[in-house]
Design a protein that fits this description.
Elements lengths: L2 H5 L8 H13 L2 H8 L4 H9 L3 H10 L2 H10 L2 H10 L2 H10 L2 H10 L2 H11 L6 H4 L6 E3 L4 H11 L8 E5 L5 E6 H6 L6 H4 L7 E2 L4 H10 L4 E5 L5 E6 H19 L14 H18 L1 H9 L1 H6 L3 H29 L7 H63 L9 H24 L4
Parallel strand pairs: 1-2, 4-5
Antiparallel strand pairs: 2-3, 5-6
Helix pairs in contact: 3-5, 4-6, 8-10, 15-16, 18-22, 20-21, 20-22, 21-22
């Protein structure tokens, strides 16, 4: 369906039979597809289109809308409709929505909800951002271990329509402690008089509410789970983290790592929604730091003024050489940050990878040195060619080792390896490149400083 066709629902003169056809087509669309269409509309058209949907469609489509569109709808729709929508949303989604609204509207909506919903929202909102508790949902099915299969199935049938997932049923003890789980398939294949405790699996994979989101995502991926239970310190079941929630976490983490590699972090903002002032504030600090770091490059050039005056041809190769070191360092840092993020490389691998990187960088450096030696000979003769070649080999080695080691060093001190951004690595490589280049030139050419 095209965007323009959907807008026909707002035409006051459109014949009823045409509108009925469009509504039928809309009802057959997947909620994610319809949400993609609605995200393309101008603000003034979003709410009228949204209001043409039935309540079940609204809840399904709202889940897939962008955060900015969700906020627009929440702040423009009638209050009672907002309360009804929130009450029908999945438990974790409604917490995310309410936390994105201003405090007054958030509190008013919460006060208008049923007591059980209020308590659920407040409990889920108490967990620190970035923890498993912050992304879990209390929308799951549980049974007691003493239940029979007949009792369990009866409870599941009663609760299933309102639950996010029913494929894994969590089994609790008398104090609500998590003691195992049973699959829906196992229950369906068992006899009705069987006891749940005879069917359940007790080999649990779970996380604490205070564990990181990344740890939850790693365990879900490692054990191929649909959902992972979240417990408190006493082992009581608090909620579950589903696979789709983990996908959102992984997307956020990957985006954040990409931003950090560019020395900028937008947090919860998106590039489209961030204001000009916010973007300036987010991007300026690291740029200022890097400006002052590059003063050292200027100081290095000033220190070797005599060398430069003696062999002016050296200046021609300065950008080429220091950029090569920075580029090699950025490559190494990118590979290492990603490897650390995915867990394919550990701290214990540093020494082994250091030796490997030395060989790789030397191989790259020698080949690049051979390539640039011809230009050096053409521009300044054999002596300049030797200086440029030696420098190329060493700056590539230096930049690569900085790019590989910096993420390891940051992780060693419990800092995010992604902070080893390309601009930071490049700036360090630039400073080293200037000192290496003119140091070799001064030594080899015999020019006094």
């Amino acid at each position: 369906m095209e965007k323009e066709k959907l807008l026909e629902l707002l035409e006051p003169q459109a014949p009823d039979e045409i509108l009925d056809v469009i509504r039928d087509e809309v009802s057959e669309l997947h909620p994610a597809t319809l949400a993609d269409l609605m995200d393309q509309f101008e603000d003034e058209d979003i709410l009228p289109i949204f209001n043409t949907l039935d309540l079940e469609q609204k809840v399904a489509v709202f889940h897939h809308l962008s955060e900015s569109t969700q906020q627009h709808l929440a702040t423009t729709m009638r209050f009672q409709r907002l309360v009804k929508l929130v009450s029908l949303m999945s438990h974790d989604d409604r917490v995310d929505l309410l936390q994105s609204l201003d405090d007054d509207l958030k509190e008013t909506v919460i006060r208008s909800l049923a007591k059980a919903e209020r308590e659920d929202i407040l409990r889920l909102s108490n967990y620190k951002e970035g923890t498993a508790g912050a992304v879990m949902t209390s929308d799951y099915v549980w049974i007691y271990k003493e239940n029979s299969v007949r009792e369990a199935i009866k409870k599941i049938k009663r609760e299933a329509p309102d639950k996010e997932t029913i494929y894994t049923i969590y089994v609790l003890g008398e104090n609500r402690e998590l003691v195992g789980f049973v699959s829906l398939r196992e229950l369906m294949l068992a006899t009705l008089n069987d006891k749940v405790e005879d069917l359940m699996t007790t080999d649990l994979v779970s996380v604490d509410a205070t564990d990181s989101q990344e740890e939850s995502a790693d365990l879900l991926s490692k054990y191929d789970l649909i959902a992972i239970p979240v417990q408190d310190e006493a082992g009581r079941l608090l909620g579950i983290i589903t696979f789709d929630d983990v996908m959102d976490v992984l997307e956020e983490e990957a985006t954040d790592d990409f931003h950090k590699m560019g020395s900028v972090s937008l947090g919860k903002m998106t590039l489209a929604d961030a204001s000009i002032s916010a973007m300036i504030i987010k991007r300026l600090p690291w740029l200022l730091i890097l400006v002052f770091m590059n003063i050292f490059s200027g100081a290095g050039i000033a220190y070797f003024e005599d060398t430069i005056e003696a062999v002016v041809a050296l200046v021609f190769f300065l950008p080429l050489l220091i950029d090569s070191g920075g580029n090699a360092g950025s490559q190494a840092a990118t590979l290492m940050v990603r490897a650390l993020a995915t867990g394919t490389v550990k701290m214990k691998d540093w020494f082994r990878l250091l030796g490997k990187e030395v060989l790789i960088a030397l191989g790259i450096g020698i080949l690049m040195a051979v390539a640039v030696s011809f230009i050096g000979f053409y521009r300044g003769g054999i002596e300049v060619a030797v200086v440029v070649s030696l420098t190329m080999m060493i700056v590539v080695l230096f930049g690569s080792l900085v790019g590989m080691s910096l993420p390891f060093g940051l992780q060693r001190f419990n800092l995010d390896p992604a902070t080893a951004s390309a601009p930071l690595v490049t700036s360090i490589a630039d400073i080293g490149g200037v000192l290496i280049y003119f140091g070799i030139a001064t030594w080899y050419l015999g020019v006094g400083v």
